[in-house]
Each structure stands twice: as structure tokens, then as C-alpha cells.
Amino acid sequence: MVILMHKQQPFGADASAELCFLPATKLAAAYRAKTLSPVEVTQAILQRIERINPIINAFVTVIADQAIASAKESERRFATGEIRGPLEGIRVLDFTWALAGPFATMQLADLGAEVVKVEHPGTHEKERGFGPYYQGISTFFFSPNRGKKGIAIDLKTEEGKELVRRLAAEADVLTENFRPGTMDRLGLGYEALRQVNPRLIYAALSGFGQTGPYSSMAAVDAVAQAMGGTMSLNGYRDGPPLRVGVSIGDMVGGLYLALGILAALRAREITGEGQLLDVALMEAQMALCENAIVRHSAFGENPTRQGSRHPLLAPFGPFETKDGWIVIANVKEWELFCAIIGRDDMAVDERFLTNRARLEHVDALEAELTRTLKEKTTDEWFAIIEPANVCAVGKVNTIADLFDDPHVAARGMLVDIPLPYGLPGTLKLPNSPIHLSKTPPVVGRPMPEHGGDTDEVLGRWLGLTEGEIAALRAAGVVK
Fold first, then answer.
1. Is-catalytic flag, 310?
2. For residues 261 and 2, what is the distance between their CA atoms, to the nearest angstrom?
3. Is the peptide bond before 198 cis (omega within 30 degrees of 0)?
4. 310, 407, 435, 450: which is the annotated catalytic residue?
5. What is the distance between the alpha carbons of residues 335 and 346, in angstroms, rounded to a whole number?
6. List of residues 6+ apart from 278 with CB closer than 8 A
7. Alpha-carbon distance 248 to 224, whole Å?
8. How many Å is the Cα radius of gyration of the chain?
9. How far apart are CA 24 and CA 72, in angstroms?
10. Which pLDDT value is given to residue 9?
């Protein structure tokens, strides 16, 4: 039970006595506004029942006392930090593979959900075989699958399908990123599983969505970036479209899937029912193109590649230094900026007097700035420019730089994750960037072993005995 602590107490000294006289609509409104906790609302309802009909009150008192005790225990665990993330208690049955889907369910695992990854007993997910390898472990698979449990079920057997139905009946969320129709053909699609669990949130991630003329097409990261528009905006004006250096085509779609799941969980608190969530990689990329799309809508403009330049501001982007690169952007006081970098002459140069002029002469502007900035190191320029607060400035960190950055260390953004299979050592991964004061994410469990949690999950979720699981394993249904 999620407990919402009240922000303030608007009632008198004898608040509990006053609450029982409030109309039900006002009690509900106070709960939604978070001015009343579930404990207070429950107590008010009980007092109202007692005043109206003591006989009814006698029947509900025992159940209500248990509910109040449970609510108070949840409040205590939130207050003491015992709850493992805000999604503790949420069960996720995860059929996703590759990167986009696992990246989504990794977010849920980081936030405390119990994510159970389902693979085939005989042939594990192919991404386990992608390099590079560390002590025989695929680093490609390790990163987005941290924090999850692993079971192995053969979905092509009737016994395996029945296991999935039973697991879905116990789950809060089911995730999959197969081509649309794959789970339906197995008899495990949304319409089938909602019959066994009306509260199930069925989250489907695909290249182009569950409907539409492209729905049957496959998509990978590069295809999503290409067809969603982001690739057309990335690169230099006279060069080819470029893929972004990290897999935003996959990962942004995964983030939207995780966001949609959280929204569906909240909606279920209100309606009591689950629903189908449909997220497309292409559409997630289109969502990133918001400014380019509104410009085309308003002005008929078809934005294209500009390198690191900004269409409305100059200077803007990375500039080479003596030993690396530094980003200069959003200059607020041009004359002062020029003085700080020792180029007073640029402050009076007619080509650079205004932002509009600088945009018109951006090639010359960038050439002059590069000539000057190459005279000092990145750290030297950062120490000169940043304290002046005349523009946005940042060092272009390499990945190796991030490992030595004191701010990264202070924020705990790199975390050591143990290796699976009892192997010695750890690997550093990015921590969750979500910092919650009372229920922070907990990142520390390694990637799942292939079928390593089958017995534990089938026993705890379904109540299967060791003998029943052994029989399923002997038949090749599970591993």
C-alpha cells in the first residue's frame, strides 16, 4: 500500500472527531490533495460507521484494524528507508530483449520493482553472446539487465504457456518487444491475459506500434533514428545524416515505455483496472523533434543538419582548445565575454556586435574563437570563463574523464555491480540519475543468470513444489 503523507492539517485540535462529519466527497478530495493520509481517511470512515450503525461497525472493525496497522507499518518503513525503492512490491514479467525493452525494465528494477526476465530454456537471449566480453560475460547484456531475476520457459509448449498465464495472473506488469502479433499467436497477447488478470498492465514496445501500415516492420536503433526524424537533424550541413553516438533510438523508446508503465500503474489505483500500453520507437524519436516539428508547422520550414550550431544563437557549440574541447553557448554579455578571453577587438568588430550579426558571420566568428581558445587547455579556459557567469560553458568529457570527475563521484553516479555466476570482481555502471530523498533507487544486483531464479520465482509466485518444478525441468519446459 502506498502511503501519501499529508502536507498540513487544516482541522481543529480534535481532528479525528471533526473528520467523521466531513462528506465523503470532501474526504476523497482531501486524500487526492494529499492533506489526509490513508490512515486518517480510514479512521474517519470507521467513526462515521460507528455513529450511524454500531452493528455494522462491529463487523468491519477487525478488518479495518488490520488495514490501519498495515498502513502504519508502510508509513514506518517509508520513514526509516526500509522500503527498497518506490516500486517495491510491483511485479514485472519481462519478455523484452535486445536494448530498448531491457533498458525500460532496468528503470523499473532500479526503482525497486521485482523484474523477472523470461528466456528460452535451450537458447538464451542472443544478446548474451554479444561482445565485448569481461571474464566471459557479455558487457552488452550486463548493462541494461542489471537488477533483474531470470527464469527460462519454453513458450512453444502448452505447459510453458500455462506457466506464463499463471505468472501473468500474479504480475502487475508484463513487458514485451516482439513484432506485433507474436504474443497473440502464442495465445499470450493482451486480450488473452487480461482474462486471467484484469489488473495487468500489458506494455508492448515495437518499432512502429501495434497499428498502422508500418506495424509489421522490424526496427533497430538506427532505423528508429532515421524514420523518426532525428537522424536528418544530426550531422553537418554539407555531410550525410549521422546516427547519434549512443543508441537513443532504442533507449528513448525504453524511457517512454517506463514512463507509460508508471502512468498506467497510477491509473490503476483510480480505476482498479489494467490496460494495454503501446509505445513505438519511431514515435519516441519524433517526440524529440518537437522544436523542428513546430517550426515546420508554423513556417513551412524543413529543418536540417547544422552540426553543433544553434539556429538562433552564436556562438554555440564545441571549440577546440590546446588539449581538448570546450563548449561555449548562450553568451549573455558579449563585450564582457570578449574581455575575459582577451579579445576586446571582437567586441567592436561589426561582424560580431549583435547576435544576428554573429549568426550571419558564424564561420568567421568560429574561426576567431578557435584561434584564441587553442592557446590554453580546456581546464584553464574553464577556470577563467565559468566563474564570470557570462555564458554557459562546459568541458567536453570523454568517458574516461567521467571516471575521474569529482562531481560524478560526489553524486555517486558510478556504481560497482558484482558479476554473476560467482565470478570475482565488479563492473562499474551508471547509477540511476533519479535522486529521491526518501525512497531512492537501489542499484546493486547483477544481471540474471540464465534461468538462475526459476525455482525461486515459480515457488514464490505460483506455490510450485520442488518436485513439480523438477518435473517441468525434466520435460524441458523450464531451466
1. yes
2. 16
3. no
4. 310
5. 8
6. 204, 206, 209, 210, 211
7. 9
8. 28
9. 22
10. 41
What is the share, in percent, of the chain residues with pLDDT greater than 90?
80
Residues 6+ apart with CB under 8 A from 346: 338, 352, 368
- What does pLDDT average to over the chain? 91
What is the DSSP secondary structure assignment for residue 478, as one 8-state letter?
B
Considering only residues 256 and 81, tell me which one the structure prediction assigns the higher pLDDT.
256
Q: Which residue has the higher pLDDT, 353 or 41?
A: 353
pTM: 0.85
Q: What cell does 459 get? A: 515457488
Contact 285, 225 (CB under 8 A): yes
User: pLDDT digits over 3-50, tens only?
Assistant: 333 333 443 434 555 776 777 777 777 777 777 877 777 777 777 776
For residue 315, whether the previous peptide bond is cis, meaning omega lies within 30 degrees of 0, is: yes
Q: How many angstroms separate the CA atoms of 393 and 330, rounded? A: 9
Report which DSSP code applies to 430: E
Residue 436: count of CB within 10 angstroms of its CB: 11
What pLDDT score was predicted for residue 469?
98
Q: What is the pLDDT of residues 114-166, one digit of tens each?
A: 999 999 998 777 778 888 999 999 999 999 999 999 999 999 999 999 999 99
CA pair distance 313, 355, nearest whole angstrom:
7
Q: Which amino acid is at 433?
A: P
Q: Which CATH topology does 91-288+448-474 take?
A: Rossmann fold (3.40.50)
User: Residue 93's beta-bridge partner residues?
Assistant: 116, 174
Q: CA neighbours within 13 Å on the CB side: how many for 21?
A: 6
Location of each CATH 3.40.50.10540 domain in the chain = 91-288+448-474
Sequence-ordered alpha helix ranges (H) in 137-280: 139-142, 158-170, 182-185, 190-196, 221-227, 248-271
- Length of the chain equals 479
- DSSP element (H, E) containing 57: helix 54-80
* CB within 8 Å of 245: residues ≥ 6 apart: none
